[in-house]
Write a structure and sequence with these properties.
Number of strands of chain A: 4
Order of helices and strands of chain A: EHEHEHEH
Oligomer: heterodimer
Number of helices of chain A: 4
Strand content of chain B: 5-15%
Largest sheet of chain B: 6 strands, mixed
Largest interface: A-B, 38 and 48 residues
Helix content of chain B: 25-40%
């Protein structure tokens, strides 16, 4: 077994101590992305194992995106956007809130641990909240452990 | 017992208020869909007993739509399906007359506004959850998420992706279903783990606030997958957290697509 495996990102370690969960974040352009930007420009430290997908609005986040992320083998998905009343498009986040309420429950009911999906409102001014959120969510996923074998949505080879 | 149903159906056909009556007739001990165009044949119609296919699904079929205006024999869940279709602008004005049967008794022939008024008067406004399903749902809720994943893995493993559930459902009428989109492909069409999981989950999600809990999908499933359990979970959120019932009026606002400032949002921190 001398063959080397080439992957773009190192696979997470299986031991709980060293396990760094892979997170996909779907965020809105106007609030959370700006909040993440603020966290960066403020030089706030937060765990680096997250990949951000920027979308115009939380209303654009189709539940299928979340499902795809789990299908691709993510350990956790973060969905975040503007606080209620602050939507750049007036009501995108209100539409999203209803959708997530149902979708989150269905995911949990079919066996995706509630700890693996996190919803949050983060405004453009909340750089600190964003950094704390990522740290907290990463820790939560570390506790939950690698999703791989238990993930019902995971793509089979 | 169903004399009133026969008389009303024959009258509607004779008067030209309906070109066809969609109902049920007896064949080999069971009830099968009947498409009556001749008033003299209206006496073959039988009242639904709650275990047949939801006839409202036929209203999405081009061959039936050509026959509009039609009359359709409905029980309460099928009536709700009619109202969902109407509220989603799928039924042209005055294209459908409901021949309402409740508890085996023919209530009368009504247009959709009258039928909605009858439903409001003879409530409950919300769809009553099936006690057996609720017990099963509570059992699952008490499990760990890994056990639930395992339970559904076993259920979905039997899915052959025949889409009988979709065909049986009056609310599944998209000309191109999300599962058939391939650029990009959102849901794998092959009958294997992740595709089956995604399909069954998204099917239930797309019916949130639109499902009348008629159970037609589950009865249509040749593999015996408990689809109504999934629908019941979505129904519980929609009804308990949002106090929204599907199919209350022909001009009702949809559940997904509308919002309220004080919608439940404690899960978003």
């Amino acid at each position: 077994m001398t063959q080397t495996q080439h992957t773009t990102e190192p696979a997470p370690q299986e031991t709980p101590q060293a396990f760094s969960p892979r997170i996909t974040a779907f965020v809105c352009n106007w609030c959370t992305y700006a909040g993440a930007d603020l966290a960066g420009t403020s030089r706030l430290q937060y765990p680096p194992q997250m990949r951000i997908v920027k979308l115009p609005c939380t209303g654009r986040i189709d539940p299928l995106f979340v499902l795809k992320a789990f299908e691709a083998g993510c350990d956790g998905v973060l969905v975040s956007g503007c606080h209620p009343g602050d939507c750049h498009y007036t009501s995108g986040n209100y539409h999203a809130r209803r959708r997530w309420a149902v979708f989150g429950r269905l995911l949990s009911f079919t066996g995706i641990d509630e700890r693996r999906l996190r919803f949050s409102w983060v405004s453009a001014a909340e750089g600190r909240k964003f950094a704390d959120l990522v740290a907290e969510f990463t820790e939560q996923l570390r506790q939950a452990g690698p999703f791989g074998p238990h993930n019902p949505a995971r793509r089979q080879p | 017992m169903s004399d009133a149903l026969h008389t009303l159906a024959a009258e509607l056909l004779t008067a030209g208020r309906a070109k066809m009556v969609l109902g049920l007739r007896r064949r080999e001990g069971g009830l099968v869909p009947a498409f009556v165009t001749n008033p003299a044949r209206a006496d073959a119609l039988e009242p639904p007993t709650g275990v047949e296919a939801n006839l409202a699904a036929y209203l999405n079929k081009p061959a039936i739509r050509k026959q509009f205006p039609v009359a359709i024999v409905v029980d309460r869940p099928a009536l709700r399906s009619l109202l969902v279709l109407a509220s989603e602008h799928q039924l042209p004005e005055a294209s459908v007359t409901a021949l309402l049967v409740d508890a085996g008794q023919c209530v009368g022939a009504m247009d959709l506004a009258e039928a909605a008024a009858w439903l409001a008067e003879h409530g409950p406004a919300l769809i009553e959850p099936d006690p057996a399903l609720e017990a099963r749902r509570a059992e699952l809720a008490a499990m760990s998420s890994q056990q639930r994943a395992e339970f559904w893995r076993q259920q979905f493993a039997r899915c052959t992706r025949c889409y009988a559930c979709r065909a049986a459902c009056p609310s599944c009428y998209c000309t191109q279903c999300i599962v058939e989109r391939n650029t990009p492909q959102w849901i794998s069409p092959s009958a294997r783990g992740h595709g089956n999981y995604a399909w069954n989950l998204i099917r239930a999600f797309h019916l949130a606030g639109r499902c009348s809990a008629c159970g037609s999908c589950q009865r249509a499933c040749p593999q015996g997958i408990p689809l109504m359990l999934l629908n019941a979970e979505a129904l519980a959120v929609v009804q308990e957290e949002f106090v929204y019932a599907a199919g209350t009026a022909a001009d009702a606002e949809p559940f997904i697509g509308t919002w309220n400032e004080d919608d439940a949002g404690e899960f978003i921190r």
